[in-house]
Design a protein that fits this description.
This protein has helices at 4-16, 33-43, 72-81, 135-147, 169-178, 187-196, 220-248; strands at residues 26-30, 55-58, 63-67, 89-98, 108-117, 152-160, 182-184, 201-209. The protein is an alpha/beta fold and 257 residues long. It has a five-stranded mixed barrel with strand order 4-7-6-5-8. Strand 6, helix 5 and strand 7 form a beta-alpha-beta unit. The longest helix is centred in the C-terminal third of the chain and has 29 residues, at 220-248.
């Protein structure tokens, strides 16, 4: 257990209850157990890791999904542990709060970048390094959304470690100055740790609340409505995009515009 790889090879199965070789080349990451359950039901595959920190499922085509939990620390953990598998592509399916009038509940966002307000990524790269996705991976996701004749937004997402900030007017004014399109707790961390570990990565975020106004703050009831209306579509787009990447076998890391 002297190297990062040694630790990751031991800890990935320990955290997930899944053997390293049982993970596919392409991965969906999420915060939601119901996404893993929906995936397993669709493909008639087993959910592993019940009772562990993270749960997973893998279909016969070699696409896996992992529920890694909530927050930037967990996001960094899974992206570090995945060095044991070295996936060819990772797509995060998360929820976010819309910060612009142009972002409504149910809209999808493909982040062009993420502001590193969470602090966790500072342990990986200097603050000056931007948190960016692998743009070719995002192109596959974009194509799937367009094929469905749906709209999506692009822009910069602010990632924070603060879970309860909606009451803080000073913080909200700060967010307005940044001109960010949305706020979440994982995207910047996933992008930076993915960069460090040379893992192609992206994020498809679902706007689940409008937290800048009191009536837009997420509640248990409102989140249930969002999940019922949009979770299946969110997951379906991720499955289609990452499956097509696997079928075409295209390289994500080096992309010529």
């Amino acid at each position: 257990m002297k190297t990062k790889l040694d630790i990751a090879k031991n800890w990935l199965p320990r955290y997930t209850g899944t053997n390293i070789d049982d993970f596919g080349d392409y991965l969906l990451l999420t915060n939601f157990q119901n996404y893993v359950d929906k995936f397993a039901n669709r493909f008639n595959c087993a959910v592993t890791g019940i009772g562990r920190p993270m749960q997973t499922a893998t279909n016969s085509s070699g696409l896996s999904i992992i529920n890694f939990g909530i927050g930037s620390a967990n996001a960094a953990t899974i992206m570090d542990l995945l060095v044991a598998r070295k996936p060819k592509g990772v797509l995060f399916l998360g929820k976010c709060g819309g910060l612009k009038r142009s972002t409504e509940i149910g809209h999808f966002i493909l982040p062009t970048a993420a502001i590193r307000g969470e602090g966790t990524s500072d342990d990986y790269k200097p603050k000056e390094v931007p948190a960016l996705p692998s743009f070719k991976l995002h192109k596959f996701v974009s194509d799937k959304i367009i094929q469905r004749e749906l709209e999506y937004r692009t822009g910069v997402v602010y990632t924070t470690n603060r879970r309860v900030w909606e009451w803080d007017e000073d913080f909200k004014q700060y967010l307005k100055k940044l001109s960010t399109i949305a706020i979440d707790m994982e995207t910047a961390t996933l992008f930076i740790v993915g960069l460090v570990n040379e893992i192609p990565r992206g994020a498809l975020l679902l706007v689940s609340d409008i937290p800048m106004i009191p009536e837009g703050v997420k509640t248990e009831e409102s989140d249930k409505v969002v999940t019922e209306k949009f979770a299946d579509l969110h997951l379906e787009i991720g499955i289609e995009a990452m499956t097509e990447l696997g079928v075409k076998g295209e390289q994500i890391k080096h992309f010529t515009y």
